[in-house]
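Response to reviewer comment R2.3. The reviewers asked that we include at least one raw input/output pair. We reproduce the pair for Ankyrin repeat protein here without editing.
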Amino acid sequence: MPSTTIRQNGPAYVTKPVKAGKIDKKDPSVCGPLFVAAMNGEVDQIDNILQQDPKKVDEKCDECDGYTPVIVAAIYGQLKAVERLCRKWNANVEIRDANSYTIVKLALDQNHGDIVDWLIKEYPKMIITDPRHPKGAEWLTAQFWKMWNNIEEEASKPPKDVLDQLLKGQLKPDTDRTVSEVYWEHILLRYIGDVPLDINRNYSTNLRMAFCGTFDRTLHGHEGIRESARLLNLVLPTTQYNIIGTHVAPKGQWVTERWEYHNYKDNLQVLDGIDTFLINEDEGKIEVMLINYNVYNLEWIDDPERPRPNTRV
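Raw output as returned:
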């Protein structure tokens, strides 16, 4: 069985590699007093505002990529504000912004590792998916080998080079990749939660997509795949996917995958996920995609023979 140890020796990259991930922070001053207080670390002002309306703690600002106050505090390095919003006002740190970015990714983009470390300590069950943090690298590597073991065909297994590139944050030029590399980079970027990078690198602007199951519609282009990602994150709040089977066709430039999703915290599951991709190897882009999945609530079956109290009057 392959080791889950993170190896530092990566592949020899081609010229002009693409750096993964990092984005610039937005200016939340247009979002209102609570966001400004979070940006400036003004904990007393945060308390004054939330005492009047506690529901504002998880309010999203559409003018600022759907940031919440705690995301703003994390992006601007205001640890005291993050602590106050979380401990006193129970801010939801699992809310993603409009790009599906996590608070951890957004804080790491601004080099606020102290805030990420505090979040990890405060929320030990939080799944860290960003490979720039040691816990994220460990998690992604473990998920990679889990998928590798689930896939029977040797030719369809994920290439280790793709994992190495993501761990190092240096990706090959998008037009210098095999069908397998395009597909598996897409999968791993979705596990990480970097939907914009996945779209820009791995999808054709002329994409055609049939979307069925819980959602039933036809989508087109980059706007279409962004909408499909938004809908997916609407019903599946984490990236706890489980790829249980993949076939990369030796000819024809197509891939089919079977996947499941089990989220015991939110009582959600998918058992019938199946996606098919037609990939243009010359362009390094997914051109056609067929998606099916249905989201169900987990149902807990109680012991039918458990004694019940007599409730008759």
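The longest strand covers residues 268-280. The mean pLDDT is 88. Further pairs are available on request from the corresponding author.
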